[in-house]
Design brief:
The chain has helices at residues 13-54, 60-83, 100-107, 121-125, 140-148, 167-173, 184-187, 190-200, 208-224, 231-238, 242-253, 257-275, 280-286, 292-303, 307-312, and strands spanning 93-96, 112-115, 132-136, 157-161, 179-183. It is of the alpha/beta class. Helix 9 packs across helix 11 and helix 12 (257-275) crosses helix 13.
């Protein structure tokens, strides 16, 4: 088995199989916990209908009361059915925060629920169990609350932030399973959106000890995006080989480290165009691009317009 620079072993297929087995066990346990509710609700509905047919002719107010009761039970049954589909692409997404661009790109045509803040989380989860949770910001307290709730213990989570530069916060998230972090510049990319939909269809997020390498690489890219970077420096910072990091990074995020970096650098450039008077050349240099022509080409590829045209738009038009 290959070694890390510091002597640690790389995670292997056996570790991944153990993590997947643990995940399947927790899903099965959750199924056993909640499945009896379906039978209870069906039984209640049968008793209501039986009672309604055995009673003499009801006055209008009593008939209305029976109809309201049946609708209530039926709605509980619907909530239960949706909650039992939490591991399928048919279950709803839960978006927390205000990143409308990311929400639109990731949700597509899927059913989705949006809440403005975590204050409404408990009430929302009482109604439905989502297939995926997407949160605006690196909120460690939110993740802790999500993982404490039995309905969302194993629900995959993506944290999206404009910039990811706080080591303590990011490293504190590394021990959570089924958790991704992503820059907003990348969250709307076709590569990440494709990966997101694959995860909703059953693909697995890497185990925490492997995913930590990816999270640390993302942190390093954010901290050093404005300066020159090389593959060996990135791999050395994460304490793995270049090939290994490229492989697990792409597997986790759906995009290569350098594709990720390019999108983040262009995001930095767009922000500078909107909020500074720097020349296009200075913007390119400040965002980590060494060549003006290459910068303009990459910028147009991602945004569909030139840097000079971007400067004339408002930030909300991006």
């Amino acid at each position: 088995m290959p070694k890390c620079n510091d002597g640690e072993k790389y995670p292997d297929d056996e570790a991944l199989r153990v993590e997947q087995a643990k995940t399947e066990y927790l899903r099965a346990l959750e199924h056993e916990m909640y499945e009896p509710l379906s039978g209870i609700l069906s039984g209640i509905m049968e008793k209501i209908e039986a009672l309604e047919t055995t009673l003499p002719a009801l006055d209008p107010s009593a008939s209305l009361a029976f109809e309201q009761l049946k609708k209530l039970v039926a709605s509980r049954e619907r909530v239960f059915r949706l909650s039992r589909r939490a591991d399928s692409s048919a279950a709803p997404l839960l978006f927390i925060g205000d990143d409308t661009a990311a929400w639109s790109a990731l949700a597509g045509d899927s059913e989705a629920i949006h809440i403005a803040a975590m204050e409404r989380f408990t009430r929302t989860i009482a109604e439905i169990t989502p297939s995926f949770i997407v949160i605006r910001g690196l909120d460690a307290a939110a993740i802790a609350e999500i993982r404490r709730h039995p309905r969302t213990l194993m629900v995959p989570v993506v944290l999206i932030a404009d910039h990811i530069k706080t080591p303590a916060t990011l490293l504190g998230l590394c021990h959570y399973s089924r958790l991704l972090v992503c820059n907003s510049a990348v969250a709307t990319s076709p590569e990440f959106v494709s990966r997101f939909h694959a995860l909703r269809s059953g693909a697995e997020i890497l185990p925490p000890h492997t995913g930590a390498f990816v999270k640390k690489a993302i942190l390093y890219l954010n901290q050093n995006a404005k300066g020159p970077l090389s593959r060996w420096k990135l791999a050395d910072a994460v304490h793995v080989s270049e090939d290994y990091l490229s492989r697990v990074f792409h597997r986790e995020m759906g995009i290569s480290p350098w594709g990720y970096l390019s999108r983040y650098r262009v995001f930095i450039a767009a922000d500078l165009l909107h909020h500074t008077d720097l020349s296009i050349q200075e913007v390119a240099s400040s965002a980590g691009f060494q060549e003006h022509a290459y910068f303009c080409r990459v910028f147009r590829k991602f945004y569909g317009i030139s840097p000079s045209c971007m400067r004339k738009t408002t930030p909300g038009d991006r």
